[in-house]
Amino acid sequence: MTHILAIANQKGGVGKTTTALNLAASLGHSFKKVLLVDLDPQANATVGSGCDKHELKKTVLDVLMNNAEVADVLVHCPEAKYDLLPESGDLTSAEVELINELMREQRLRHALIKIQHKYDYIIIDCPPSLNMLSINALVASTGVIIPVQCEFFSLEGISALVGTVEKIAKMANKNLKIEGVLQTMYDPRSMLTIDVETELRGYFGDKVFRTAIPRNVRLAEAPSHGLPAIVYDKNSKGAIAYKGLAGELIRRHKPKVRMGVEETN
Ligand SMILES: Nc1ncnc2c1ncn2[C@@H]1O[C@H](COP(=O)(O)OP(=O)(O)OP(=O)(O)O)[C@@H](O)[C@H]1O
Ligand SMILES: [Mg+2]
Q1: Given this model, what pLDDT does residue 100 score?
Q2: pTM, 2 dp
Q3: What is the distance in A from the centroid of ligand 1 to the CA of 123?
Q4: Is the CB of 44 under 6 A from ligand 1?
Q5: What's the rounded mean pLDDT across residues 118-136?
Q6: In what order do the strands lie in the sheet with 82-85?
Q7: Residue 213: CB within 6 Å of ligand 1?
Q8: Is 3-253 a domain of CATH 3.50.50.60?
Q9: Which of 63, 169, 175, 222 has its CA 20 to 30 A from that of 189?
């Protein structure tokens, strides 16, 4: 089964793209076949993957508009060990271009159906809003990872996202669930971090990943070199944390054998 994971939180700057890039690379370096989809007009995941967005002939927008197949748009990223479905900024117009299209919230899902069997994981970097692009990501996904920056106001807006996930799960995608909540820029010495963590665990329980991502300058530097942290500095605290997150996911998704019956979760 392919796990399609949307990295979503409508709050800006909480570590969505950093998580998408580094989780995709950590899974790739753990011998999983991975596709990273950049669904944010800011194109940060594309640039952070070392891809020159000005050189792209086709992008994810062409896929959403049915002008191209995923396979024709893919870029291989051998060092990061994933394939990228890139974006160049064109998606800014997607909301308008999709407005008159039929089944516009299903476009990404239909495009991915044709190629998803080739991958163990498809990671989707969402924009910082609950717009048609985020809805496309949620309709296409099996799970949502919500990065939360452990600071004041970080819990605001999460209930809107959880409500949207529940609505989509009911109306358009019964496979969708919250895969997990990821604490980013985590500082265990800060009282505020501890307060936010207590609140998160109270609300989401064991959906909060055991791995928390520390604030680490290597994670911020790596994208300007077009590399994930695991390649840029594999011994950095940030790279090690994202490897831990990938390991946690892989263990969760391992088929469990119970009384001779194989189950997956
Ligand atoms: N754990 C971390 N340690 C240090 N810096 C980080 C960490 N995570 C993210 N950053 C930095 O914080 C900034 C915001 O991170 P990122 O771009 O991943 O957030 P985002 O949620 O994708 O933002 P947007 O909502 O604009 O898409 C970036 O400059 C990034 O390099
Ligand atoms: Mg981003």
Answers
A1: 79
A2: 0.95
A3: 16
A4: yes
A5: 96
A6: 75-77, 82-85, 34-38, 121-125, 3-7, 143-149, 177-184
A7: yes
A8: no
A9: 222
